[in-house]
Amino acid sequence: MNHDLETQLDVLRDVTAKVGAFALLRFRNLAQIAIETKGEADYVSTVDREAESLARRLIHAQFPTDAIVGEEQPGDAQGDHWLIDPVDGTANFLSGIPFWAVSIAYVRDSEPVLGAIALPALDALFWASVDSRVHGTGPVSPLVGTQPIAFGIGRNRTWPVAHRLEVEAALEAQGFHIVCLGSCAAALAMVAAGRLAGYVEHGINLWDCAAGHVLCRAANAPSSILPEANGKVAVIAAPHLTETAKALSTGAGTQSFGAR
Q1: Is 51 helix (H, G, I), strand (E, B) or coil?
Q2: pLDDT tens digit sequence for 126-184
Q3: 41: phi > 0 → left, psi -120 to 50 → alpha, else beta; which?
Q4: What radius of gyration do the chain's Cα atoms show?
Q5: Residue range 85-106, pLDDT digits in tens
Q6: How far apart are the first and last CA of the chain?
Q7: Of the chain's two ends, which shows fewer C-beta atoms within 10 Å, N or C?
Q8: Is 228 annotated as contributing to ligand binding?
Q9: Is residue 71 part of an annotated ligand binding site?
Q10: 66 among the known binding-site residues?
Q11: What residues are paired with 118 via a beta bridge?
């Protein structure tokens, strides 16, 4: 069902803030959290599941017939839908490192068009529609006119190490300092906020990057989501890449959607 995007964005911001507040309370009581693994070094906790359930309830309270897809609970991603990553950067969260995010997007006609990311432990919240500007609150709200020297790279077991190192070398040759922050969503929020020069990660899921992709485009930071094998995607948010570094990052001939 189609709704007014402005109304949806208001709900999206409110839901993301409330889920972030819930997760932050649990973050402050880590000793009480049960930890499991979904795969090799792929961690999940009761907080991930409870946070996603809360987001679903809050969205359904406003839009009871809308489809919802989340990291922890499957859903139908064929039509328009909400897309939830309840805690992006779970390893950081469970280690007591404050760089983790709640990331929620709305996908219309197969493209993310609304996005909100909360960084609860940093008291920050960002939200935007893809054709508007980025809104932000907190101490890491968007900066204007900055020229960051740090460039974010994601690490995971799907992205071949040799290719990642090749991309890192190309970026370092361009003069960037490479950082891995441990959360795709949080790193993309930093690109949109003018704190990172860009971000690249292959072998991820759409819920990892959809909201951050929207924020980057709203901030006029070119961003692409590239389909890969086995339902995975790559995200390249890179305002300042040379053609050589861009080619290495995206792969020659790769088709993307949502580029700008």
Answers
A1: helix
A2: 999 998 999 999 877 666 667 899 999 999 989 999 999 999 999 999 999 999 999 99
A3: left
A4: 17
A5: 999 999 899 999 999 999 999 9
A6: 27
A7: N
A8: no
A9: yes
A10: no
A11: 102, 125
